[in-house]
Amino acid sequence: MVQPLHDLDALRSIQPERQAGTVSKQLQPDQPSFAEVLGKLEGSSLEPTSLRFSKHAQNRLDQRGVRLQESDLRRLEDAVNKAAEKGSKDSLVLMDDLALVVSVRNRTVITAVNAASEKESVFTNIDTVVVTK
């Protein structure tokens, strides 16, 4: 059974262990801090460098008979990196006769259109266009 609180002044005098909005730090002496771990990862090969293709984009490429070579993937990745440097969220990448809509944040190709399959296209919800050579 719960006992009612009668002495509110006694309750108010209890000091919290930490102030609201702060995080208590309970690291073991031999454990690195989050900042140290993050600093090590920033210079490592674990940075996101590969692009993914959504199922929709892969289906579009397959339907249109488009096969991307390793050099094409490198060019596409360079284009996405340039868009990311400019703060882009969603980009249209124009590469040869191919137009790819890419989620820069997620590093995912959303859809693909080639010149042979579309005479006229409208792309929405993009904030940058990158033209690769």
Q: What's the short story on this structure?
A:
The chain has 133 residues and is of the alpha/beta class. It has helices spanning 8-12, 34-42, 55-63, 70-85; strands at 52-53, 90-95, 98-103, 108-114, 128-132.
Q: Outline the biggest β-sheet.
A: 5 strands, mixed
Beta-strand level of the residues, as a percent range?
A: 15-25%
Given helix and strand content, the structural type is alpha/beta
The topology string of helices and strands comes to HHEHHEEEE
Counting DSSP E segments of at least 2 residues, the number of strands comes to: 5
Can you count the helices? Answer: 4
Quote the distance from N terminus to C terminus. Answer: 76 Å
Radius of gyration: 26 Å
Mean pLDDT: 78
Which descriptor suits the 3D outline?
elongated
Unreliably modeled segments: 43-48
Largest sheet, spatial ordering of strands: 1-4-3-2-5
State the helical fraction. Answer: 25-40%
Keywords, separated by commas or semicolons:
133 residues, single chain
Describe it for me?
The chain has a domain at 52-132. Mean pLDDT is 78; it is low at 43-48. It has a 5-stranded mixed β-sheet. With 133 residues, it is α/β, with parallel strands linked by helices. The chain is elongated. It has helices spanning 8-12, 34-42, 55-63, 70-85, and strands spanning 52-53, 90-95, 98-103, 108-114, 128-132. It contains 4 helices and 5 strands. Helix content is 29%, strand content 20%.
What is the topology?
Layout: H1 8-12, H2 34-42, E1 52-53, H3 55-63, H4 70-85, E2 90-95, E3 98-103, E4 108-114, E5 128-132
Parallel strand pairs: 1-4, 2-5
Antiparallel strand pairs: 2-3, 3-4
